[in-house]
Specification:
42% of the residues lie in helices and 19% in strands. The protein has 15 helices and 16 strands. An eight-stranded parallel sheet has the order 4-14-13-12-11-10-6-5. The protein has a three-stranded antiparallel sheet with strand order 1-2-3. A three-stranded antiparallel sheet has the order 7-8-9. Bound molecules: zinc ion. Zinc ion binds at residues 301-302, 305, 307, 309-310, 336, 339. Residues 301-302, 305, 307, 309-310, 336, 339 line the site of zinc ion.
Length: 376
């Protein structure tokens, strides 16, 4: 177990675990979903409202923050927690994924990646050492190693070359990390959809030694069945006493299936991004508030949801706000979606503690499939 970032497994149910991670900015009960706060803000939400949804840890994006307002500026102003008024824990990504998806004129070699900003075209270099330095300046509770984001689909040979480079970068990232209590660094398992490569990658990272282990390079178009296969192939190679983080996942049913397979931490833009496009997640599946059928519906979005939006507003009102393009639509639907995700994780933690996660997963799938066209 990591001394700097203690993690305890409190209960197990099959491969699933109910755990507790201690950071310098609070205790994280796992399994846990981390809302994405890309540019030092969870879009459309004040930090106190994010906390009220039940979130205890959020994700910040190194790529966006290094460009604007810069990690040095945030450090001068007391670090990311203080800068954005978020007292809870923060995990930062390494910047690699966004460089690959957003930046222009990227060039990758053994040293790292050079690119031009998507904002103003200026030149930057991101090496494993620089990524760790930026995350240190931000004050991240959980720092991620810089890895190469392997494209999908990819041949086994290309995947292997990319994964092996990521493992060398993981070692350099680990060496550049400054240990301090309540802060830790996670390695990232790569290897595409190839179980042998995933195993090899996991073993390489365990040899280096990290406070936690992430599974990267999934939810990139491979499909849920393949994703679950890769998780099943990877998890047994990871230390039982360290937290496991599935990066960039996912939809509610992805979370349920991955928790059943032993994942502890998740992040994804889906609940927040969907909230800005009138999509809401409920116990009876996904609802599009723009749909005309909600126009005169006085009922709450999800009558079983405990969030303020479901207690205080009708579907008809949310429909009106979404159709009118009002800012409040994004605010209220983001608030509900994050509350829904937090409640889903809390329900799964409780189910694991009572060893009935599989029963919960069956009921969950049944109700999602029902849809909400039936009388509520
Ligand atoms: Zn709600």
């Amino acid at each position: 177990m990591s001394a700097a970032l203690p993690f305890a497994v409190l209960a197990e149910d099959g491969a699933a675990r109910r755990g507790r991670l201690e950071t310098a900015h609070g205790i994280i009960e796992t399994p846990c979903f981390m809302p994405v706060g890309t540019a030092a803000t969870v879009k459309a939400m004040r930090p106190e409202d994010v906390a009220a949804t039940g979130a205890t840890i959020i994700l910040g994006n190194t790529y966006h923050l290094m460009l604007r307002p810069t990690a040095e500026r945030i450090a001068e102003l007391g670090g990311l927690h203080k800068f954005m008024n978020w007292p809870g824990a923060i995990l930062t990504d390494s910047g690699g994924f966004q460089v690959m998806s957003l930046a222009k004129l990227r060039h990758i070699d053994e040293r790292g990646v050079t690119f031009r900003s998507h904002l103003d075209g200026s030149h930057y270099s991101l090496t494993p050492e620089r990524s760790i330095e930026i995350q240190h300046l931000l004050g991240a509770n959980i720092t991620m190693v810089l890895d190469e984001c392997t494209p999908f689909p990819v041949t086994p040979d290309e995947s292997l070359v990319s994964m092996e480079r990521s493992m060398r970068w993981a070692e350099r990232s680990r060496a550049a990390f400054t240990e301090r209590p309540g802060h830790g660094i996670f390695g990232i398992v790569q290897g595409g959809v190839f179980p042998v490569q995933r195993l090899h990658s996991a073993e390489s990272l365990v040899d280096i030694g990290f406070d936690g282990y992430a599974i990267g390079g999934l939810a990139v178009g491979e499909g849920q069945e393949t994703m679950f296969m890769v998780i099943d192939a990877t998890v047994p190679a990871l230390p039982a006493g360290a937290p496991r983080y599935l990066m960039g996942v996912g939809k509610p049913d992805d979370l349920v299936g991955a928790v059943q397979r032993g994942i502890d931490l998740f992040d994804c833009v889906i609940p927040t991004r969907s909230g800005r496009t009138a999509q809401a997640f409920t116990r009876r599946g996904t609802v599009n508030l723009r749909n005309a059928r909600h126009g005169a519906d006085p009922r709450p979005l999800d009558p079983e949801c405990g969030c303020p939006v479901c207690r205080q507003y009708s579907r008809a009102y949310l429909h009106h706000l979404a159709r009118a393009g009002e800012i409040l639509a994004a605010m209220l639907l983001t608030q509900h979606n994050l509350s829904y995700y937090a409640e889903l994780m809390a329900t799964m933690r409780d189910a694991i503690a009572h060893r009935r996660l599989d029963d919960f997963a069956d009921t969950f799938a049944e109700r999602q499939a029902q849809g909400d066209l039936l009388p509520l």
